[in-house]
Design a protein that fits this description.
Distance between the termini: 54 Å
Radius of gyration: 20 Å
Strand order of the largest sheet: 8-7-6-9-10-11
Bound molecules: 1,4-dihydronicotinamide adenine dinucleotide
Length: 365
């Protein structure tokens, strides 16, 4: 399907297809919106079955980054990239070829970490372009984003708990964590450290065994996690796990997790509302990583200043859930509207600046 007619197109500014003969790289870089600043978003390495799957994924993720950065209060636009490859076939040459493609965009897009694209990859990209975040070497180094992403998800959980139960205390709550990767395991740890209990699933038995050993987690098979009675369901694996098929099985009051694009379709937001499940929108609660990586972009990294912003995700979640209750509308729609309002205000301000006669401020000041 042509990009302009694609159901996920959403007015993207640029969608760049990259093919590198020497390395076999096939990548798509999507820049959704730069109203607030240069587009920032991670690079995902995934063996998409078809390039249509890759396009749909990158467009959805890139728009999500525009909204994420807007609601996180960052002067950044939204973009994302995918490399169509099995992570087993990832080579430094392939990643370098991707980095050169990012460099040719001359700062319109900054790449960061995502699934199957970690710190080591970011360092390889940094060898060929300055437009990369989440580094551990160099002048400014924000490093691994996952502790901050996990911290933001945990803050989101507290916001949602206070909205639903009138009390943000995690102690005594049961949380189902789907996916124990860089973020999911840390979320599970934060929950248990706060006195909650976790039930977990992962396709990798070594991860669930570790969670059982270190966190006293209950372990269930991957498909069974949807049926667990819990206070919070935390999707921390891949996207689209919250669907018309899985929602009727959920026995949670809250959904709050790290995965991007958790809802298989926007309509699922309404289904969740009708079932009385408070959904803390994915791009709101998983913004901790980009809040941290912003230092690499701005050139000033102050970890002490990052944490209060990560903690403030709790307040944003409360505002969204309150708005959803008041308007009797899905929280996912409320969050989208809040992000659109931030963008509209920035566009209006820009237009007003462009219309103002030169030197006017000096004359009237
Ligand atoms: P990861 O790749 O380290 O972890 C994903 C985990 O999910 C792996 O342990 C994998 O085995 C497991 N998994 C895969 N399929 C599963 C299934 N069907 N059921 C249960 N577990 C399954 O990824 P990471 O970094 O922890 O990210 C998790 C999610 O959060 C992703 O969707 C990512 O896009 C999103 N995210 C991550 C950020 C970060 O800072 N790492 C920032 C924002 C979003």
């Amino acid at each position: 399907m042509a990009v302009f007619e694609h159901p996920e197109f959403a007015g993207h500014e640029r969608v760049v297809h990259v093919a590198d003969r020497a390395t076999g790289l096939r990548s798509i870089i999507a820049i959704h919106d730069r109203t607030l600043g240069p587009a920032v978003g991670g690079c995902r390495v995934f063996p998409y079955a078809t390039s249509a799957d890759a396009i749909a994924d990158v467009l959805r993720l890139s728009k999500g980054m525009t909204y994420k950065n807007a609601l996180a209060g960052l002067p950044l636009g939204g973009g994302k990239s995918v490399i169509i490859a099995d992570p087993k076939d990832k080579t430094p040459e392939l990643i370098r070829a991707f980095g050169r493609a990012v460099d040719e965009l001359a700062g319109q897009y900054w790449a960061g970490q995502d699934v199957n694209f970690g710190i080591a990859d970011a360092e390889i990209v940094a060898g060929v372009t300055p437009y990369v975040l989440g580094r551990t070497k160099g002048r400014v180094t924000s490093g691994d984003p996952s502790p901050f992403t996990a911290g933001g998800v945990f803050a989101g959980m507290k916001g949602a708990l206070s909205h639903v139960f009138g009390n943000s205390d995690v102690a005594g709550r049961r949380v189902a964590v789907q996916g124990l990767g860089s973020v999911g395991f840390k979320v599970a740890r934060l929950v248990t450290e706060a006195g909650g209990r976790v039930v977990v699933s992962d396709v990798r038995p070594e991860s669930t065994e570790r969670a059982a050993r270190e966190l006293g987690a209950d372990v269930v098979p991957t498909e069974a996690i949807f049926d667990e009675r819990c206070d919070i369901f935390a999707p921390c694996a891949m996207g689209a796990t919250i669907s018309e098929e899985t929602v009727p099985r959920l026995r949670a009051r809250i959904i709050c997790g790290a995965a991007n694009n958790q809802l298989s379709h926007p309509q699922v937001g309404r289904t969740l509302m009708e079932r009385g499940i408070a959904y803390a929108p994915d791009y709101v609660v998983n913004a901790g990583g980009v809040l941290n990586a912003f230092g690499d972009f701005s050139g000033v990294y102050d970890v002490a200043a990052v944490w209060p912003k990560v903690e403030s995700i709790a307040d944003t979640v409360v505002r969204i859930l309150e708005g959803a209750d008041r308007q009797k509308r899905p929280s996912s729609d409320i969050a989208d509207e809040m992000a659109e309002a931030v963008l509209a205000e920035a566009r209006n301000e820009r237009q007003a600046r462009q219309k103002a006669p030169p030197g006017r401020a000096a004359q009237t000041g």
